[in-house]
Design goal:
Strand content: 15-25%
Helix content: 40-55%
Number of strands: 6
Distance between the termini: 9 Å
Radius of gyration: 17 Å
C-alpha cells in the first residue's frame, strides 16, 4: 500500500518504571541500543512513555522533563544515523501529566502526537482539545504536530470536529487510537474530511 510503519515502544509509569529508567544512564543506553537494533525492521520508532510528572513540581518536575528529553534526543540521534524517524506520543500539555517539555522535544523529534483525550467526558470536550493544540503550537512548529484522537471517546460527528481543529491549526495530521475500534461511520467521516498522504 506504500505505507510506512513505526515500532511503538510503550510503557506506563504506574510503579515508577519510567522514572527508574530515566534515572539510570546505563539503562538508558541499553534501551537506546536495543530499540535501535529492533528498529531495523521499521521506518522509525514511536516512543509512548506515559505518566510522567503527575505530582512533581518545581525543580523536580524540570528534572523529569530534562531526563525524558535527553533520552529522546539520544534515541533520535541514533535513529537518524540509520535513516529512521522518531515520533513521540505525549500527554496533552493541559493534562495532569506535565513531565514533557514540548519545545525541547519538538527540537529533537520528527513528530509529536498530542494525546488530547482522557479529559473525563465523552466525546472529548472541544474547548480542551483546542486548548491543547494551541499550547502545543506555541512551542512546536505545527507541521510537526499530529492531533491524537481516541476513537472510543468520539462519535461520527465529533471526530469530524476534532479533524477540523487539526486543519484549522495546520497540523501535520491526525493520529487515531486505535485501529479495530473505528467503526464504518467514522471511517466514512474521515474519508470525507482527510486527504491521505503517502
Amino acid at each position: 500500500k506504500g505505507l510506512t510503519n513505526e515500532m511503538t515502544v510503550h510503557m506506563v509509569n504506574g510503579q515508577g518504571e519510567i522514572t527508574a529508567l530515566l534515572n539510570d544512564p546505563e539503562a538508558c543506553q541499553r534501551a537506546v541500543d536495543q530499540i535501535t537494533r529492533e528498529a531495523r525492521h521499521y521506518d522509525g520508532v514511536n516512543l509512548d512513555l506515559e505518566g510522567l510528572g503527575l505530582s512533581a513540581q518545581g525543580t523536580a518536575l524540570q528534572e523529569i522533563r530534562n531526563k525524558y528529553t535527553a533520552f529522546a534526543a539520544m534515541l533520535a540521534k541514533r535513529l537518524h544515523q540509520d535513516g529512521k524517524v522518531l515520533s513521540v506520543s505525549l500527554h496533552a500539555p493541559n493534562s495532569s501529566y506535565r513531565g514533557y517539555d514540548y519545545a525541547a522535544l519538538g527540537a529533537v523529534c520528527d513528530q509529536i502526537i498530542i494525546m488530547a483525550y482522557d479529559y473525563g467526558s465523552k466525546p472529548e470536550p472541544v474547548n480542551q482539545v483546542e486548548q491543547a493544540v494551541q499550547m502545543a503550537c506555541s512551542s512546536v512548529p505545527a507541521h510537526k504536530l499530529l492531533l491524537g484522537i481516541s476513537a472510543p471517546s468520539e462519535t461520527e460527528e465529533s471526530i469530524a470536529t476534532k479533524v477540523g481543529i487539526a486543519k484549522r491549526y495546520n497540523l501535520g495530521g491526525v493520529a487515531l487510537w486505535r485501529l479495530g475500534v473505528i467503526n464504518e461511520g467514522m471511517w466514512q467521516t474521515l474519508r470525507a474530511n482527510l486527504i491521505a498522504e503517502r
